[in-house]
Amino acid sequence: TQFMSAHGVFAVMKAQRLSKRADLIAAISLDAYDGHLEPFDEKLHLIRPHLGQLETSQNIVRFLEGSEL
Predict the structure, then answer these.
(1) Do the beta carbons of residue 60 and residue 26 sit within 8 Å?
(2) pLDDT tens track for 15-47
(3) Element (H, E) at 32
(4) What radius of gyration, in Å, describes the C-alpha atoms of the chain?
(5) How many Å apart are CA 9 and CA 32, to the nearest integer?
(6) What does residue 64 show for φ and ψ, rounded to 5 degrees?
(7) Distance spanning both ends of the chain, measured CA to CA
(8) DSSP-assigned letter for residue 40
(9) Which of 30, 32, 23 is nearest to 58 (CA)?
């Protein structure tokens, strides 16, 4: 039904926002604990090309641009 479709779309949108926030929290934590960016090298994530994994890695690297890491 139309309601179920709208409800599903709303849930997907909330999940996407939650995922972006989780990436941001991970980046902030990595910066706070003096982590390393090497595990987020794109070449590593292309070996096993899982789209979500690659997107998360790219988000974390983007969030940390200009950081001292």
Answers:
(1) yes
(2) 999 999 999 999 999 999 999 999 999 999 889
(3) helix 2-32
(4) 15
(5) 35
(6) -95, 5
(7) 49
(8) G
(9) 23
